[in-house]
């Protein structure tokens, strides 16, 4: 897959079958749509093109609301990594800024789909809207397809609804229940996030469970429900096992600030300021306030045994 950041240098193709969307997570529903795109392109030997947008349109159109409410499954780098597995020929990443948001549907069709890409077939969902104020849609395109010089094909309502259900199911499972297995079922892979290891108060080290305190690289990245999880963590090009706590550490702190900490099994080393990737495998339990440090240590020992068991069976 060739990745094009912007449309300026893109050279028109002989034949192009095109679709567009945010494709956050590139989950099972999205994968079905992309499979449909490939099959459609095979019919006339055209190249497949996926147009996506960054930042997410809501960060431009509703910045204050999005900053508070919108949590994404993947950042741009992660999305590209997942799309690399989908056998798409071209990915075009369009910058969704104020200027782009003012482009009319006719301008989008003429300037991008026709002039820049030479679209011969456009595959879109029945409810897909584009252009300023979301004025363009399937009916409009279908009505004018002869004028535009490309064929318009509709992704079925079921395929679109499957994608919508997948997105909702993933977010609800992670946010409401910490159910990482359900998220994995819809994603086809373990949900993960990246972060930088930062200094902490070293309480974990004092009680025999040293942790890497992780600061997320992206503030908009979705974090699952507070609790303790069995995880894998990529450190210095090594994939290691561990257990993670997301929460407020009520037994040993005042419980005000939320933290993300990973106790990495069988690992010693200084990884401060390094980037790590954490993948969630199973939620072990809710965060609890214990009656003293000894009770906390006892529970952490049990958590580690369970985490090792879970991670061993998942490999």
Automatic annotation (TrEMBL):
Catalytic activity: riboflavin + ATP = FMN + ADP + H(+); FMN + ATP + H(+) = FAD + diphosphate
Functional pathway: Cofactor biosynthesis; FAD biosynthesis; FAD from FMN: step 1/1; Cofactor biosynthesis; FMN biosynthesis; FMN from riboflavin (ATP route): step 1/1
A GO MF label: ATP binding
Signal peptide: none
Statement: the UniProt record of this protein carries the keyword Cell cycle: no
GO biological process: FAD biosynthetic process; FMN biosynthetic process; riboflavin biosynthetic process
The EC number(s) this enzyme carries: 2.7.1.26, 2.7.7.2
Key words of the record: ATP-binding, FAD, Flavoprotein, FMN, Kinase, Multifunctional enzyme, Nucleotide-binding, Nucleotidyltransferase, Transferase
SUPFAM superfamilies with a match to the protein in the record: Nucleotidylyl transferase, Riboflavin kinase-like
Entry-linked CDD domains: FAD_synthetase_N
Pfam assignment, any one: Flavokinase
Domain annotation Riboflavin kinase: ranges: 186-312
Domain of life per record: Bacteria
Keyword Isomerase recorded: no
InterPro entries: FAD_synthase, Riboflavin_kinase, Riboflavin_kinase_bac, Riboflavin_kinase_bac/euk, Riboflavin_kinase_dom_sf, Rossmann-like_a/b/a_fold
Family per record: Belongs to the ribF family.
PANTHER family: RIBOFLAVIN KINASE, RIBOFLAVIN KINASE/FMN ADENYLYLTRANSFERASE
Protein task: Catalyzes the phosphorylation of riboflavin to FMN followed by the adenylation of FMN to FAD.
Name the record gives this protein: Riboflavin biosynthesis protein
């Amino acid at each position: 897959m060739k990745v094009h950041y912007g449309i300026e240098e893109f050279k028109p193709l002989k034949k192009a079958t095109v679709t567009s969307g945010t494709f956050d997570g590139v989950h099972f529903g999205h994968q079905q749509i992309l499979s449909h795109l490939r099959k459609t392109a095979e019919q006339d030997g055209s190249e497949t093109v996926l147009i996506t947008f960054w930042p997410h349109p809501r960060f431009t159109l509703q910045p204050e609301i999005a900053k508070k409410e919108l949590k994404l499954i993947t950042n741009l780098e992660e999305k590209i990594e997942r799309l690399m597995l989908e056998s798409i020929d071209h990915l075009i990443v369009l910058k969704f800024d104020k200027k782009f948001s003012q482009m009319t549907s006719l301008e989008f069709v003429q300037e991008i789909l026709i002039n820049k890409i030479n679209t011969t077939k456009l595959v879109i969902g029945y409810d897909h809207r584009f252009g300023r104020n979301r004025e363009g849609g399937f009916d409009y395109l279908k009505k004018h397809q002869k004028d535009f010089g490309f064929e318009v094909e509709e992704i079925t309502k079921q395929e679109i609804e499957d994608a919508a259900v997948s997105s909702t199911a993933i977010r609800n499972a992670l946010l409401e229940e910490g159910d990482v297995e359900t998220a994995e079922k819809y994603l086809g892979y373990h949900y993960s996030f990246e972060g930088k290891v930062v200094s902490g108060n070293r309480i974990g080290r004092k009680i025999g469970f040293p942790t890497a305190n992780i600061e997320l690289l992206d503030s908009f990245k979705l974090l699952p429900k507070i609790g303790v999880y069995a995880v894998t963590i990529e450190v210095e090009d090594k994939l290691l096992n561990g257990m993670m706590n997301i929460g407020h550490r009520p037994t040993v702190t005042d419980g005000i600030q939320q933290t993300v900490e990973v106790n990495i099994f069988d690992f010693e080393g200084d990884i401060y300021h390094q980037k790590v990737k954490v993948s969630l495998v199973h939620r072990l339990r809710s965060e609890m306030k214990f009656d003293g440090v000894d009770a906390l240590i006892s529970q952490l020992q049990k958590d580690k045994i369970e985490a090792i068991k879970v991670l061993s069976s998942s490999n």
